Amino acid sequence: MNVKYVNHFGESIDLCSDVLMLRDTDLLNYSWDYQTKNEFNPTVSRFYKSMVEKNIKISIIGKTKDEYNKLCNKLFEITEKDIIAAVNGFLIVNNEYRLPCYIFSKKISAWHPSAKKIVNEYTILSEKGEWLKDVTRVFGVSSTEKQSSEGLDYSYDFPFDFSQSSANNLLKTDAFVPFDFTIIFSGPCTTPYVQIGDNIYRVYTTLLENEYLTIDSLNKKIYKTKNDGKRENEFNLRDRNNYIFEKIQPTDGLNYVDVPDGQITSITAHLERSEPKWT
Longest C-alpha distance within the chain, in Å? Predict the structure, then answer.
């Protein structure tokens, strides 16, 4: 297992190296809180997580006193920037699943002024305690374009990467529960939509060339991004016969996506787990 911390500026530090070594931890432990109903015959009404704390121990080992000092300062400064800004960083496991969190507490073990190594205990705070992973696929690009996507030259940059295009109309994930999503339709097109399972995600709008429309189920937002970068709220133009923020159902990790011919559409699946997937 490889673990690194990345702050909200994108600065990272490897916690599984020869000089910074992750030791004892409850990082993979989890627990749900719960609410009950019916005082005289109590039953569970819901499970939830909120403000989850985890502990990790990190060995800091320097070959010289100067190297040791630099390692201590780097670890502190990268994590402290998130605390001061109150913007979370991420613990990332195997470059796949990430835990939004803050490293907000440190306890120092036996220390000596001339020390070149030490084991510190850190406390992590995660607002939800969920491990996250995003899976993005692009639909509506021809097979020829998919194979040579690195050489495509469009008049503007799409808000996604063509190199991640799927080879067919399947959205492949390792989801086992319903998941949130971000759908991006790229112009030019009129009344963009996709159908996934029994649900249609459609907005009655027109996109000009270089414009795109975003459906964000996590934040319950629908907006058009125009050529000049300005956003327009398109929530009232949604298809009201289908719930546009309906989570996508897991179907053995494969979801068939029906996309109109010529419509370029990006779908990002936002996956959540109580623990990162074991691989």
Answer: 70
Ramachandran angles phi, psi of 75, nearest 5°:
-60, -45
CA–CA gap between residue 240 and residue 172 (Å, rounded): 28
Tens digit of pLDDT per residue, the chain (279 long)? Answer: 899 999 999 999 999 999 999 988 999 999 999 999 998 899 999 999 999 999 999 999 999 999 999 999 999 999 999 999 999 999 999 999 999 999 999 999 877 888 899 999 999 999 999 999 999 999 987 544 443 333 333 333 444 444 344 457 899 999 999 999 999 999 999 999 999 999 999 999 999 999 999 999 999 999 999 999 999 999 999 999 999 999 999 988 889 999 998 899 999 999 999 999 998
